[in-house]
Amino acid sequence: MVLIQLLLPVNTTRGQDAARQAFAVTRTELTDRFGGLTAYLRAPAVGVWTSPDGDREQDDVVMVEIVTDGFDRAWWRDYAGTLARRFDQEAIHVRALAMELLDDEAG
Asked: What is the model's pTM?
């Protein structure tokens, strides 16, 4: 099993409503493809980093998690590019972690 985590911004350069619409499309796409997801929407995390020009940058982000049987690196690389364009970002952070579900052992 694989846990896939995405960090998606709360705002875009087109505003918070555009980000909400982008998230709705993304939620539908991922649910259709993987059968479901978990999104932590109540308390956005704050991402802080130093840009290449030395400025301090900050984004409010939400975590989206998907549990699936495998990780198709090429598909996720392409989809991360789609998300970056959709959310007006240079890149979208996607990580895949090997995992084991405890309830799988009960069956």
From this structure: 0.84
